[in-house]
Design goal:
167 residues, 11 strands
Length: 167
């Protein structure tokens, strides 16, 4: 399995601007009643914000352009922010693939804040939520996210994209 982790992904000033907007009081979040494909207990919910979805660019697309300038995707599929609220115990969600039947697709996760939540892969690889960290991997790798117990929220931006093909 190839999981690539890059810390201090954006220059500090650019990251601080992005973080302040996304976790600020004027950023639009939308309730999503389910995180998992099968929410057996009906307790897993999150708030989401779409930046890009199937050729539609949201009004805040420009906020994530500094990240796109670094990863240089060939083509975008979806970019959305996920906000999970604090829980008494860490809740590990169900393992999933962001898109089940799309080969050569890359998933990137950009962490907006520090917290004790994490991203977990089926092979037990754990990536801690550290602000300004970018993790990329093949979208066919099963993974999941968790809630956190030490901050009010866990916020990430999830990128699904095709990479440039090397010549």
């Amino acid at each position: 399995m190839s999981v690539k982790i890059i810390d201090n992904f954006l220059p500090k000033e650019e990251f601080n601007k992005l973080q302040n907007i996304i976790i600020g009081n004027n950023f639009d979040w939308y309730y999503n009643p389910s995180i998992d494909y099968e929410d057996k207990l009906n307790i897993n919910f999150q708030f989401i914000h779409f930046f890009y979805n199937n050729n539609w660019r949201g009004s805040n697309f420009n906020l994530i352009e500094p990240i796109l300038n670094i990863i240089k995707p060939f083509s975008l599929v979806r970019i959305k922010a996920n906000l999970l609220t604090k829980t008494n115990d860490i809740i590990v969600n169900e393992f999933h693939k962001d898109f089940k039947n799309i080969n050569n697709l890359t998933t990137g996760i950009f962490y907006i804040n520090n917290c004790n939540g994490y991203t977990l892969f089926k092979d037990d690889t754990k990536v801690e939520s550290i602000a300004n960290r970018f993790v990329s991997f093949d979208s066919q790798l099963e993974h999941t996210g968790t809630s956190c117990t030490d901050e009010n929220t866990r916020v990430v931006i999830n990128f699904n994209y095709f990479k440039q093909i090397s010549k």
